[in-house]
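User: Could you check the structure of this?
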Amino acid sequence: MADRDADEIKRDIEQSRAALAEAVDEIAFRTNPKRVADNAKQSMIDKAKTRQGQIVIGVSGALIVLLIVKRVRKH
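Assistant: Sure, the predicted structure tokens are below.
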């Protein structure tokens, strides 16, 4: 490895700092709890709007109604 002068080393350190700061900012953005929750919520809404999602919601609703009716009749 060739000898480097102080200016080259400083420049490399500053470039590394800038890259690290950018990486940290990206991680903070991606892992922001509100953003993660909003993405999960939107994903669930999108899935619920599909034909398959509507079927799952309908079947789940019907099962809940049946369980409630069964419990009411029991008492």
